[in-house]
Amino acid sequence: MAEAQTIPGGSNTSGSIAVAAESTTATRMSAPPSFDVADFPVPHGREEEWRFTPLDRLKGLHDGSAQASGGIKIDVSAPDGVTVEAVGRDDERVGRAGKPVDRVAAQAFSSFEKASVISVPKDAVLTDPVRVSLHGEGGVSYGHTVFDVGAFAEVVIVIDHTGDAVRSANVEFVLGDGAKVTVVSVQDWDDTAVHCSQHNALVGRDATFKSVVVTFGGDVVRLNPRVTYAGPGGEAELYGLYFTDAGQHQEHRLLVDHDTPNCRSNVAYKGALQGEDAHAVWIGDVLIQADAVGTDTYELNRNLVLTDGSRVDSVPNLEIETGEIVGAGHASATGRFEDEQLFYLMARGISEQEARRLVVRGFFAELVQQVGLPDVEERLLAKIEAELEASVS
Question: Residue 13: exposed, middle, or buried by beta-carbon count in 10 A (0-12, 13-18, 19+)?
Answer without folding.
Answer: middle
